Input
Amino acid sequence: MADKTTAPPQFNAKYVKLGTVVVMVSLFSLAILAIVLTALENIEEEVEQKVKESLQTVLRATQEAHHIWIQHRLLELGNTAQSERIVVATDILNNPASPSIMRSSAEANIERSFSQMMETYQDKAYWISDSQGQVLFSNQRTPPKQVHPLFELKRDKMEQVIDGESMFITGLPQHNKHSNNMYFSAPIIDLDQQVHGVLIVSVNQRDHFSRITQLGRIWNSGETYAFDRNGLMLSASRFEEQLHRVGILEPGQDAINSLYITEPKENLSNASQALTLMAQSAIKGNTAFNIKGYPDYRGVNVVGAWTWQPSYDFGLTTEIDKAEAFQIYYRTRNIVVLGIISSLLVAVSLFLLLYFSQRNAKQDLRQARLVLEDRVKERTADLEASQQELRTAYRELEKLAVTDSLTGIPNRRCADEFLEQEWRRAQRGGYPITIMLIDIDHFKLYNDHYGHPAGDVCLEKVAKTLIETGICKRPGDLIARYGGEEFIAILSNSDFDYAEFSANRLVKAINNAEIPHQFSLVENQKNVTISVGVSIAENADIGLAEIIDLADKALYLSKQNGRNTFRFKLPEADSAKPNPDSSAKANG
Output
């Protein structure tokens, strides 16, 4: 008699088949899970790499833009501090015996010298002090003889200024809210390199500095900002409205010089609290990035890249909310995880629909990949557009750095760099190079009688006339504004005859321009005239400084000989050549 507990063969076969299906489904599901996890890991790595590259690109571009802006301001401020007007005014104010009328005139000259600069850059204030830091004059209500705070808080920097170096200064201890934290300072130096005082300008951080910094914004939550060694924000925050709303900033308070880069669980008004991970790393001098995420000063988890700029003593970072930077990856991951869970539930519940469930899951995965690729392309296009804007801004800043803002022709910095390059090329090629220094005759009288706005128009007309003479059309030639009413012409591979022809043409062109100057002291002249000093280096035995000095001496000879003419001053080896000038007189 058969045992009743023994299962029928069909029943056992069914369970064996069912177990086989379960094993196959399980193995297949595990295989799919492994593939998906690997794909997600690869996608995450690719997104991290692209985010890192984008952040570093934006950071480098903003850093270079800051460098160009700072160097341009230092050059402009240095030229102003070395002007004769500022030197003389400083000496008058520094002399207790100076009559009040002279002191008033000196203060008026200083105000005129700074009016355009203050209007252009919207700077807050400027001071002129003696070498000990005692304020001689300011557009602020600063008591006379009071020592400027920079001489107490940044004594090392100010000693460098007194030694003759223009400085960018920031990172001051913040004793009072809203106090300024960014300055330019330059020594007031005469032609003999004697320091007469110090010029200090308080920078409007919300204007040019913040606007350059904010060029680094990418996407909806990206932000680039600067901070000092204390972790104090130096540029405007993109999220000031949000900071006011949550109480991090007080009503009417902005982030500049008030907000410390600390996590929001700390008291942001207290500089002694712990800085964010980024700020702690940057102030140690590190250039780094973090793609895994860290809390910023709002408490939002962000990714970022940062650097410390030791030359200017401030840090720079560009950050973006991690949720936005990785939103494509998160969306894809969620879609895939949800698909896997759904597929497993369907596979366990309905083995008969395993094939369809797997096919749908694969289709969902492929679709998710396509969506990711499309979004990555869109973000890449956005980044390329942002980078193009930064490149355009960089080119504009680069152009401003080498162009005279008044006349539109190359400036002193451009002329010095160009002359250095042409000088080396002339030495290698063994061909001569001519330098002409050009000075507008009695330009001070012109300014005194017609006013400085008319003087600016005169400078523009003279610059245009010099360019239109066409003596500098070759790649190795240049006409530039050299400072004040002085211009320089550089003629590469030019012999004595061509130099004489060019100098004569410049003098005549200014005469023919007939720019009225009723107060000119040049004989028989009621129009603007120029004096030209010319020197030629025909071999490598003479130095660049010496040939410039010879041109300057030749310019002095032109002025001694009645002006409205030109003179040559050649190296001793060429002294036997004629020294023409009479043919260059007006109406000659």
Notes: Residues 112 and 452 are 9 Å apart (CA to CA).
